[in-house]
Fold this protein.
Amino acid sequence: MHIHVIAVAGTGMGSLAGLLRELGHEVTGSDVRFDPPMGPALAGWGVVCREGFSPEHLEPAPDLVVVGNVCRRDNPEVVAAQTRGLELTHIAGALQRFVFPGTAPLVVTGTHGKTTTTALTAWLLDATGFCPGFLVGGLPKNFPESFRAAPAAQRRLPLAGDEEPATNPARATPFVIEGDEYDTAFFEKTAKFLHYRAEVAIVTSIEHDHVDIYPTEVAYVEAFRRFVGELPVTGLVVANAADPRVVEVVAAHSRAPIAWYALEDQTVTVPPHWVGGAGPTGPQGTSFDLFAGGVHCGRFVTPLPGRHNLANTLAALAAAAQGFGVRLDRLRPALAAFRGVRRRQDLLGEPRGVRVYDDFAHHPTAVRETLAALRGRHPEGALFAVFEPRSATACRATHQDEYALAFDLASEVLLAPLGRAGIAAGEALDLDRLAGAIDGRGRPATAFGSVEDIVRHLAERAKPGDTIALLSNGAFGGIHELLLAALGRP
């Protein structure tokens, strides 16, 4: 088919375009800009890219038009497609039609940890012989792309030399996908993950987010209730026993069997089946003892830093082992070989002996956990937390007080201007007030007027052995390259 994708340069839409090309379709796409890395990637995949939005981009007429969720109903290409009677769908509809058939979708959901857990689960299944399809909302370092189509006619086969099957023959080939709770399109306002027909699901956490779509916590939680309630009785939900909201939702609404997981020292209200007891951290990562059903399964090592990532690791192991029958002795070496995801505690460089990390953290909980992981990895030296509020939720005052507590492990906090315009003054996050609140907790904090001012400040203050954490879910004004260059100067 000839498929045209409107707003193709986003992470999810671009990966979808790549998937469609991999499946043999002719794909064109339009967007306002085609910046790296997605712009060059689209060209490399054979997607014909057209800049701007114009009815002319629908010539010749495509067989199908996929509309990104950033598009409004007055988008010129949307209007032209509707006027001409062209078939419209959204990313979830395209996945249902072209990607999911013949697979068992494994959907990773939750407010936090989706991208890392999705990439890790896909890698565990791939390294143990399953050849899963996947779609990750980031760039997993173990794969050349953020997507791969599952062979439609292929069932999982045991690895060479195995005396028993390495797979669960009751399920089809897995397709691992990050289950976003954001809405699907202007004409379909339900959460994307409700369209994914999960057979196995992971629920990492539930904490009010995306206030532009879910103005109340009740509305946000309802999306997860619907998702969990629609899992089949033959499925499996892997759920965080240490998250009270997850327990409330999953225990009350799941028809599928539940595999609870938690760290050994976490407070739980339901007994977890999968438990991790954290051990020492070394050059290869964090070691932990794995228990399943009360049975000690041996010591494992995860390269991912931080307690939150140890919990994510438990979820991925449980989904692979209990959901698809992967043997634990196969999972141990696979886990040790995981390399992570770009923009998740991603070390960009160490100019002048200063470690510069890039991380996607933007919610208060994610900020706190990321800083805890970095401080645990680098207890020496100063830890500079550089935060850009950019998402619709982060730019609003919804978590004003929570942000003040999230930076307690930083040595100094540098706040960038809001990354989103058009928010009413009374609704916006008050950066001066936030800086004052953080400062009042004993952490020097400053609200800066520009990225350039932040770079100059860090270039003057950072010393060998220090760590800088750049926290934003966007491009952050090019601060990454600017800072590396500034620190690299004598």
